[in-house]
Amino acid sequence: MNNKILLVEDDINLGTILKEYLNVKGFVVTHAKDGLEGSLLFAGNQYDLCILDVMMPKKDGFTLAKELKKHDE
Prior knowledge:
Distance between the termini: 25 Å
Structural class: alpha/beta
CATH class: Alpha Beta
Strand order of the largest sheet: 2-1-3
Strand content: 15-25%
Number of helices: 3
Helix content: 40-55%
Largest sheet: 3 strands, parallel
Radius of gyration: 12 Å
Shape: globular
Order of helices and strands: EHEHEH
């Protein structure tokens, strides 16, 4: 079973490295480039884990985490 991860990271290089590493370990990773994109992806999919950057454009990680928690309740 492949666990699905939503990775929300605005640093493209770091996001790519993390995604590739997690893919090698057998995870299916969706990489969002900012908090708004992460919010939209979360609303349309199911993930087993979300990894959020804190400081991002459009929507910070703390705000996004609160939204994701509210959506999941």
